Amino acid sequence: MKNFILLFCLVFSTLSFSQTKKYKRAETQEKANLQKDADWKTALGTIKKLKNGAILVALDFKKEKIAYFEKYENTKEANKIRSERLLANQQIINSFDSLFTFCMVYFFDVEDLHYFVNGHADSVTYYNPNLKLDPAITVQEDFFLVGNFGHVEQLYSKDSAGNWVYYSSKNSISAFVLRDQSLVQLRNPFPFYSPYHSLGLVKKRYNMPIRKFQAGLEAFEKNGVVIYMRREKRRVKRRAKIKARQEAKAK
After folding, report:
1. pLDDT, tens digit, 9 for 90 and up, residues 24-76
2. What is residue 159's predicted lDDT score, i.e. its pLDDT?
3. Which of 54, 27, 150, 236 minimizes the C-alpha distance to 244?
4. Structural Rg of the chain based on CA atoms
5. Residue 213 to residues 88, 175, 219, 249, Cα–Cα distance (Å)
6. How many CA atoms lie within 13 A of 187 on its CB side?
């Protein structure tokens, strides 16, 4: 009798654990679906606002690195880095000017990013097409995003149980990345980044990602709503099937 009770308790606890795990998985999936739905609505709203808005591009001059070599009187290395960054930043401006037409673009020093975090974006000074600071240049658009050539942050990853959890880190993708006005990286399905290779000819290095970035924004503006509606239709059908199965089991 004692063995039977132990066996019963073991089977009951196993079934209970299985059901709990099933409910948790369903709850996690539902949360993920709600988050995806929110991300889609945000993305569709963002692409509309960006069309009449602007992208503010941060240019990295490696000033700290240059200052380090100058401190130790390594003028040759300091001048080399300075020349490389001037060439790269001028090419970024040229590539946007010649290949990007989706919205207005402005260029500023990456060291001014702190103004956005502190809510003082109006304190930023922008560069003209010749890479010269021009106080006369001001952002006229109400809506803007901030972009730079860096790395994509991996926002979600799977934990040991296989669940998707929040996890902010940089992955290996070098890319031109968009962030909001508080410098929070945008999310899928918005085409918020365009991969690039940091080596090779400077012109090709920046032309390719900017060309793809332009194409990605245009495609999302044109097809985003259609894709979202198809997704919603599939979700409605899926929910109807689940409900039908549940009702069939209840009979």
Report:
1. 455 566 677 788 889 999 999 999 999 999 999 999 999 999 999 999 999 99
2. 52
3. 236
4. 25
5. 18, 10, 10, 50
6. 14
pLDDT higher than threshold 80 for residue 245: no
Q: Is pLDDT larger for residue 23 or for residue 144? A: 144
Tell me, what amino acid is at 123?
S
